[in-house]
Design goal:
The protein is mostly beta strands. The chain is built from no helices and 14 strands. Strands 5-6-9-10-8-7 form a 6-stranded antiparallel beta barrel. The N and C termini lie far apart (62 Å).
Length: 213
């Protein structure tokens, strides 16, 4: 009889398309996202035992704590230490999507790209191809960066953006990096109390190992 290999138990999958998903308890899961189970829904799954990878295709939806990822395809693997890694594939017309809540703040990071690489061990996300990274304060868009490749580190909250020829479009023929940064409102103008500073404000950097000042 042929031998059948089944997906490892750390993957919980449903082979159906669902209209939506409600996340519960997101306010307590920011730093704990790394240790949360990865739940995946898709139209189909292929498990490759030789590579120890699971390939999900068709309307893929991934949740992991406050993290939400979407795409047309996702390759997932887990190392012996339990760290999870994933590559989400989209297209220029329907890019992959990533969203995660920032620790201790009513703020969310959202990103898009034709390819999204999630590294659960390093806690980094790399968006490649028509990459966009946005920061929301509540429901209000606060910052936005556009480039060919964006790397976001959720531990240091530092991101880097790369431009170049691959970033050239009709709207941006030079291929240069573009960013929109909204200043924090001066609460002192409306409130006599000193305006609090934002100790976790995102800042672009060319060095992912740079320490927060």
């Amino acid at each position: 009889m042929p031998t059948h290999h089944f997906p490892p138990p750390w993957i919980r999958s449903h082979f159906a398309t669902m209209a939506g998903l409600v996340l519960a308890g997101a306010a307590h899961a920011e730093l704990a996202d790394k240790d949360k189970p990865m739940n995946i829904e898709a139209d189909a799954l292929r498990y490759e035992d030789t590579r120890q990878t699971s390939v999900f295709t068709g309307n893929v939806l991934i949740t992991k704590g406050t993290i939400v990822m979407r795409g047309s395809k996702m390759d997932v693997r887990q190392d012996p230490q339990g760290n999870q890694f994933g590559v989400v594939t989209g297209t220029a017309a329907a890019p992959g999507f990533f969203r995660q809540k920032r620790e201790g703040l009513d703020e969310w990071i959202e990103g898009e790209g034709e390819r999204i690489e999630y590294d659960g061990k390093a806690q980094t996300v790399v968006f490649t191809g028509s990459a966009v990274l946005r920061r929301y304060r509540g429901t209000q868009l606060n910052d936005e960066s556009v480039g060919n490749q964006i790397t976001y580190n959720s531990l240091t909250e530092v991101f880097t953006v790369k431009g170049g020829p691959a970033n050239r479009t009709a709207a941006n023929p030079s291929g240069r990096v573009r960013a929109m940064l909204t200043p924090i409102p001066d609460a002192a103008s409306t409130d006599p109390a000193p305006a609090p500073t934002d100790p976790a404000r995102l800042r672009p950097s060319t060095d992912l190992n740079e320490k927060q000042k």
